[in-house]
Amino acid sequence: MAGRKGQQLVLLLVLALWGTVTASHQCDSGDLQALNAFKAVFLDPGRLFETWTGTDCCDGWAGVNCTNSGRVNSLILEGPFPTRGPNPYPKSGYIGLAAAALTDLTELETLRVISVFFNGPLPDTFGNLKKLETLEFGFNNLSGSLPPSIGQAKKLKYLTINVNMPQGFDQKFDGGPIPESFCDLTDLETVSLTSSRLTGQIPACVCNWQKAWSLELSVNALESEIPNCIGYTLKQLTRLTLDYNNFTGPIPVMLGRLTELETLKLDHNNFSGDIPASFGNLTFLEEFTASDNELGGPIPASFGNLQALVTLDLSYNYLDSIPAELGNLTSLYELNLRRNKIQGRLPAEIGNAGSGVEQGLQLDVSHNILTGKLPLTLGALASFLAHDNFFYGPFPQSLAAVGYVDLSNNYLGSWGDIGPAPETYDVRILLLRNNRFVGPLPSWIPEILNKSRLITDIDISHNNFTGDVAPLFQDAPELRLLNASYNSFQSHLPESPFVTPYGSTLDLSHNLLDGPIPASFFTNNAGAQFIDISYNELSGPLPDSVGDLEAIALLDLSHNHLTGEVPKSIEQLNDTIQYLDLSFNNFIGSVPATALEHKVSFDDDDHEYF
Ligand SMILES: *[C@@H]1O[C@H](CO)[C@@H](O)[C@H](O)[C@H]1NC(C)=O
Ligand SMILES: *[C@@H]1O[C@H](CO)[C@@H](O)[C@H](O)[C@H]1NC(C)=O
Ligand SMILES: *[C@@H]1O[C@H](CO)[C@@H](O)[C@H](O)[C@H]1NC(C)=O
Ligand SMILES: *[C@@H]1O[C@H](CO)[C@@H](O)[C@H](O)[C@H]1NC(C)=O
Ligand SMILES: *[C@@H]1O[C@H](CO)[C@@H](O)[C@H](O)[C@H]1NC(C)=O
Ligand SMILES: *[C@@H]1O[C@H](CO)[C@@H](O)[C@H](O)[C@H]1NC(C)=O
Ligand SMILES: *[C@@H]1O[C@H](CO)[C@@H](O)[C@H](O)[C@H]1NC(C)=O
Ligand SMILES: *[C@@H]1O[C@H](CO)[C@@H](O)[C@H](O)[C@H]1NC(C)=O
Ligand SMILES: *[C@@H]1O[C@H](CO)[C@@H](O)[C@H](O)[C@H]1NC(C)=O
Ligand SMILES: *[C@@H]1O[C@H](CO)[C@@H](O)[C@H](O)[C@H]1NC(C)=O
């Protein structure tokens, strides 16, 4: 018994092997004709049809697959992405017509035509393709609109018609309204109709697509309200993208029932009203964007349940409050609330958000009407953009651990509890422009410059710091910008051993700095590209060492009380200098302007800007 079974097995194996080796599925003559007709309407500069020769389309024709009986069941043409630039032309791609011959391949299950410069309107004969499961046209040069006959390809599961032209090309495809016939495609699992100039409303009958797990309609001109039924019928949806359209009305509360959702993009529309509290039930949601709408009211406290949330972008709306519950969102990586109408204090709990993310949370609450003192507990953030608000009180020292801090245009001052110093100083960019700091530099500023080995930008301009400027000069090896202009610093320029990194910018203008310029000032800053010490009270001669500035593009010494002759060494700046301003001083003699190619402003009434 066992022996006979064994023999049968061997026989089966032999037959199976024989079948695959001989691959006897000679191409169906009708399909061959259709493929040849299709090939005939293509220019083929990239010779991508090179393999389409002979009569057996099932044997080695690139992109063509057959059934065992020689019928073409899959055609996949994927050209190289068309070249961009002034003369965009697909030099190595296909160029051809969206020929009706395609729909003569009646056994097709898969038809994907991507980036091949398919010109003209799509044929409206998709009803021939009764077995079609996958249909994709992307990055083509289509004209016309969506063919309603696609709705007759009843087996369709994956439908993608998107980005019909790469950026920089004229788009001629006017998708038009989503044809009602598409609603008959009840097997659809994914629908992607992006960047296709779709117009009109989403027909309510899309709620027939009950097997859909991904529905993408981004970047079209769809308008009006979105059908409420989506919320209680398309239960499988994990991805819904309606961004960059013209939708209006409230966000349907019912969408809160799509509990499988992982991605929900509603940004760049004209949605109004509140954000539904029901969204707190979307516990798998990873990305929610609703920026650039007309949404108002609070961010619902129920958002504290969205434990999977990674990205929450509600910027550019009229939202008015942040719930402390957002601090519960441990996976949050980006929280963007820029340009809303959020008032009151920033809840300290926000500092806990993103605690499960290694890099920390990127938080943007800039351009709101937030006020009160900053929480002392924001040190775990990756970035904190809170400029253009009404925060007052001290700068919490723990922020020196945050990579990018912008608190410009607030009312922060040098008083009150600054909290504990951070364990590590990781700040790279620290912007405190236009606040209300007064008095001598508090020690935390030089400490940041000294201890944050990564700091590239520090801007404390437009405050009213007084006293000695020297503590700003620390060994900060990555510094690109030190802006302390528009303060009331009153001291000599420092003779510190601090060396500005090559290419950096130093702006100490509009202060009360006095005394002579030490020779070491230029030597130590020899690599600087931009030095502005104008509008101070500096006196004495300009030291010879000015010629040491090897990278200088802009040097502004104007509006001081410098005296004596301008040293000859200044000619050495000729190679790099773009703008040199010596005006409004008490120099005697003349400047070797010819050597500097007239890139100099010297006389008080002679302002040349280059
Ligand atoms: C087409 O056939 C090749 C080789 O047999 C196979 O690797 C590929 O998966 C097939 N493609 C489709 C879409 O059926
Ligand atoms: C794209 O289509 C237009 C006509 O709709 C045609 O004039 C143009 O030449 C086509 N571009 C390419 C690169 O085929
Ligand atoms: C949205 O609608 C407005 C007003 O009807 C119109 O001016 C605008 O062009 C539309 N935008 C898009 C992307 O369709
Ligand atoms: C958006 O809606 C507001 C009213 O809510 C309306 O004033 C505005 O014109 C709309 N904008 C567009 C582009 O439709
Ligand atoms: C969340 O779902 C539960 C049960 O599914 C429901 O009772 C509750 O009303 C929903 N919450 C909101 C805010 O809609
Ligand atoms: C969420 O945050 C609030 C306020 O910060 C807190 O009272 C609540 O216990 C937190 N809930 C969970 C589930 O962590
Ligand atoms: C800067 O740091 C060095 C050592 O890292 C230390 O010796 C020095 O005192 C510090 N200066 C200031 C102003 O903190
Ligand atoms: C800056 O502070 C100095 C000294 O405290 C004060 O005299 C001056 O008026 C202040 N300037 C501004 C613009 O507040
Ligand atoms: C320094 O800050 C002042 C005032 O904020 C600004 O006008 C100036 O352009 C800044 N300087 C540089 C070099 O960025
Ligand atoms: C100044 O530099 C320019 C190039 O930046 C050069 O052409 C010119 O000859 C130089 N002039 C003198 C006087 O060295």
UniProtKB/TrEMBL annotation:
Localization: Membrane
Entry GO terms, CC: membrane
Membrane topology value: Single-pass membrane protein
Pfam families xrefs: LRR_1, LRR_8, LRRNT_2
Keywords: Leucine-rich repeat, Membrane, Repeat, Signal
InterPro entries in alphabetical order: Leu-rich_rpt, Leu-rich_rpt_typical-subtyp, LRR_dom_sf, LRR_N_plant-typ, LRR_Rcpt-Like_S/T_Kinase
GO molecular function: ATP binding; protein serine/threonine kinase activity
Signal sequence region: 1-23
Domain Leucine-rich repeat-containing N-terminal plant-type: 29-67
TM segment ranges: none
PANTHER family: LEUCINE-RICH REPEAT-CONTAINING PROTEIN DDB_G0281931-RELATED
Protein name: Leucine-rich repeat-containing N-terminal plant-type domain-containing protein
Species the sequence originates in: Riccia fluitans
